[in-house]
Amino acid sequence: MGVGSSVLVFDRDATLLATVEGTDEAAAAAFDPSTGRAFVVRQDNGDTGSGGDNDGSLAVYDTTTYEVAVEAVLLPGNHSQLGSAALTVAPGGRTVYVTSPAEGKVVELDRFVSPKVVQAPTDQTVTVGDTVTLIARAEGTPEPSERWQVSTDGARTWQDVPGATGTTYAFTAEAGHDGHRFRAEFSNTGGTTRTTPVTLTVTADASTGGASGGSTGGDTGGDGGTTGGTDGGSTGGSTTGGGTAGGSTTGGGTTGGTGTTGGSASTGSATSVSGSTTGGSLAATGVGALGTATAAAALTAAGWLAYRRGQGRTTGGPAGHGDTE
């Protein structure tokens, strides 16, 4: 319920749960059950002599915490001198339509949420010939695109990896990949977000051979005898000794190979900060509906584009493109 510039929140038993304050009159509200958010249109009173500025706004609140969920969007020219504004919210809360009786127009606002990384790759240590698998995921509105990038100079410059545009990037490790750094980049209308770079360490696939040796033995021999004399005699015999001989073997070895990363693109320095917006942003993008259209403008840095709807001609505003890392 709107009372002046305040919004009063009641439960089904008419018990007051919270009061949400604002600067302009609370004219109308709508809810999106799927996101649990409330959309509130506020209108200026249109009395510039008493401090009015003729500009309204659209605010978005979390219905559980009653806190602001999305930065308020300015609605220039939307005041209450010729009637109260109304609004409707498309399922999912991505698109909102707001009327402006003073201008005879309907404004369409589309919600954009810059990519937010929900899974990032990690440093890896592998052996030459192993399969390297890097995985990264992000969420945003609209669904962000993804591409993988590689740096061969300690993250000073980055190149797109040809064909690596999916959630998973896999390749065979080569010696030349050692020390390379990798990251995933996500982009949509709301902005660009990158994962923190990770380092690949590649070790050589070394194997060793063994050796065994033998010994040689010589031979010995001897003879001996005795003689005795009286009437007869006897003679002694002789004995001989034998020997043994041993052999030897030699050992072998293998060497590792080298390689380079696949493909290259234009190089350039890149600096950005990983991160994303939490609740997204609203921007006006528009097509005419009720009255004479005016130029739409990007209303917030975070992204809502406003569409002004009017007879006869159509105007649209640009979509902002931020770059965060």
TrEMBL record:
Checking Gene3D superfamilies in the record gives: Immunoglobulins, YVTN repeat-like/Quinoprotein amine dehydrogenase
Q: Where is the composition biased (Low complexity)?
A: 263-278
* Residue ranges with Gly residues bias: 210-262
Query: Which Gene Ontology BP terms does the record give?
Result: carbohydrate metabolic process
| InterPro entries from the UniProt entry | Ig-like_dom_sf, Ig-like_fold, Quino_amine_DH_bsu, WD40/YVTN_repeat-like_dom_sf
Could you tell me the superkingdom of the organism this chain comes from?
Bacteria
Segments carrying the region annotation (Disordered) are: 204-278
* Protein name as catalogued: Ig-like domain-containing protein
Annotated source species: Streptomyces lacrimifluminis
Traced from the root, the source organism's taxonomic lineage reads: Bacteria, Bacillati, Actinomycetota, Actinomycetes, Kitasatosporales
